[in-house]
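Appendix B. Chain record.
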Amino acid sequence: MSNPLHPENEGNRGKKNPQMFSQDIQIANLSARVPEKVARGVFTTGVLVLQGATEVVLDFVLRMNQPHQVAARVILPHSLVPQLIEALKNNLENYRQAFGAAPPAMPTPPPPESPPTIEEIYQDLKIADDVMVGAYANSVMIVHTASDFCLEFISNVYPKAVITARVFLSAPQVPVLVNTLTQSWQNMQSKHQQQHPPIPPAP
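Structure tokens predicted for this chain:
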């Protein structure tokens, strides 16, 4: 049996299929739906940034109890990373203007004798099945108080935008997140340039 929606069917080859439809859509973040399981959000004490071929994974970690755990996993397209960095920087500037100073710096722990591998880091982390799947987001909104920042990750998919993850970070963690994301983005850009060097101009 042939599928009338498949563009490669013999009867549709080279013709515009009237049963196929595409249209650009725009959805307002301000009207995003908040699922009940996301509404309360999760508090985290740090972020691990993983680079994929087509996406970036943010693992928000809670290290206040044993075992340490990944409290939320958010999956972003590469294109959202520079927007997230800029939004965080803007919020840090708004924080400084509102409260007269930047968030206090995190204490710097002594460097380990040898940095742990990614396998060693994740050996000490518990990841629940519902968190391991991750939450996709192609937009983000950020709000803050004097002590905390709230990152709302949003999936803009028709018919309504949905908040897929709500994550709270203490204010001192945010500059650390900005630095980590910036370094990760620069690494991605460098790898892309190595894999796709510019074409030299024709003589």
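Further analysis of this model is presented in Appendix C.
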